[in-house]
Amino acid sequence: MSVLTVVAAVLVFVCAAVWGTVGVLGVTGTLPGNRWFGVRSPETGKSEAAFVLANKVAGPGFIGAAVILVMGGVLTLGVDSGWSVLFALAALVVAVVTVGVVSGLGIRAAQALPDESGSGCDCCSGGDDHGATASACGDEKAGSPADDCGQSSCGSCALQGMCETDSAAGKR
User: Fold this and answer.
1) 100 and 141: one domain?
2) Which residues 6+ apart lie within 8 Å of 26 measured at CB?
3) Is the C or the N end of the chain the one with fewer CB within 10 Å?
4) How far apart (Å, rounded) are the C-alpha atoms in residues 130 and 128?
5) Count of beta carbons in the 10 Å neighbourhood of residue 134
6) DSSP secondary structure letter of residue 141
């Protein structure tokens, strides 16, 4: 057994331990908010509830990635061949893709949480300032609900059919 084989196996076992631990803590809701582990994005950083939800959703995938890595490590050590390192490499690639996919699902779950900022405006997926154009959020002081057309990327007015051009409106 070569040194490269042992190093590759140890690497995948360490990654499996980390992702398995993150997965279990995520599923149980006990993963503390941090800068290094779990699903981290601007969406999950908005609140503790968003971080916990995203990691609960992604947790089973993290655990699955850990299982894949353990199997790859066992195959790497168990097969007596110069090519056995490929098992570790393949397991690492599949695990990284798995973690990426389930992290995306966790982020989508966090985006679905209502906005906790207290603004009452949950029409946007993020980033747009409706302070100047409160009409998209139903403010009584605002003018026409179409006042923010072309000003916001949230699309709330477009979804309500208010952002039509004159030519599009005339075709009805």
Assistant:
1) no
2) 38, 39, 55, 56, 58, 59, 62
3) C
4) 6
5) 18
6) T
Domain boundaries, position 32:
3-111
Give me the helix-helix angle, 85-111 and 48-78, nearest 10°: 170
Interatomic CA distance for residues 18 and 23, integer angstroms: 9
Query: DSSP secondary-structure letter at 145?
Result: G
Contacts of 29 (CB under 8 A, 6+ apart): 52, 55, 56
Q: Which of 5, 7, 18 is nearest to 95 (CA)?
A: 18
Contact 106, 62 (CB under 8 A): no
Contact in structure between 123 and 154 (CB atoms under 8 Å): yes
**pLDDT of amino acid 79:** 84
For residues 80 and 30, what is the distance between their CA atoms, to the nearest angstrom?
Answer: 41
Query: Same domain for 9 and 61?
Result: yes
- pLDDT-derived band at 135, boundaries 50, 70, 90: very low
Number of domains in the chain: 2
Task: Say what the pLDDT of residue 133 is.
Answer: 43
Rounded to an integer, the average pLDDT of 136-140 is: 47
Q: Sorting pLDDT into bands at 50, 70 and 90, what band is 120?
A: very low
Any idea how long the chain is?
172
